[in-house]
Amino acid sequence: MLEYQNQNCELTLKEGVSIYHSSFPDGKEIYKDKSEKKIWRYHDATHVIFGMDVSLEEEAILDTWAIWGTDFTLTQALSYYKLPELKELQDKLLSEVKILGFLKLYKNVFKTKIKVLRKVWKMKKKWPYQFPNEFYDRKISDLRKAYGISILKPEEKEFQKLMWSGSVNNHK
Q1: Residue 4 DSSP one-character state
Q2: pLDDT score of 106 more than 50
Q3: Residue predicted with more confidence, 57 or 77
């Protein structure tokens, strides 16, 4: 388990994002923003604030957090899905696991997504997807408390990992 995956993590958001990046498997690229939109910066921070790792399953679960637990807009979503690096990753994944693999993935994480929705409904307010720079210097625990974010406990993550070339086998 990564340090930021503890509910009361005392790291700053910046430190949490650094740990998130260090958990990437060897050879997995850390995407950098190529425009002023800072899409990857905000995306990576959502992994940390909601306690999700870099695995495909937790990426799928993060979608639920992002859609329902943040102020992420349709315009931002469309910008995100137009990124060439995301398209390349999706094409690679689709070529390996096929449509059936995607369906299995979402069936596999469905119960956990329902748990996330229950947690979202209990939040005090939505997480600002495009948060202010000052948030990077605040403790993750303080940010979670301010927004009423209760991350998933390990035992609430009811799924098995889908194996593909980009799989996270274990954390560094």
Answers
A1: G
A2: yes
A3: 57
Element (H, E) at 83: none
Alpha-carbon span 71 to 48, nearest angstrom: 16
Distance, in Å, from the CA atom of 95 to the CA atom of 99, rounded to the nearest integer, reads: 9
Rounded CA-CA distance 65/84 in Å is 23
Residue 70 in contact with residue 129, Cβ under 8 Å? yes
Residue 139 phi/psi, 5-degree rounding, is: -65, 140
User: Could you give the CA distance from residue 99 to residue 104 in angstroms, rounded to a whole number?
Assistant: 9
Task: Give me the chain's average pLDDT, please.
Answer: 85
**Dist. CA 93–CA 8, nearest whole Å:** 34
Indicate the pTM of the whole model. Answer: 0.82
Are 54 and 168 a contacting pair, CB within 8 Å?
A: yes
* pLDDT over threshold 70, residue 33: no
Rounded to a whole number, what is the distance in angstroms from the first to the last CA of the chain? 10
Averaged pLDDT, 5-16: 98
Q: CA angle, corner 38, sides to 35 and 40, nearest 5?
A: 110
Q: Inform me whether the pLDDT recorded for 97 exceeds 60.
A: yes
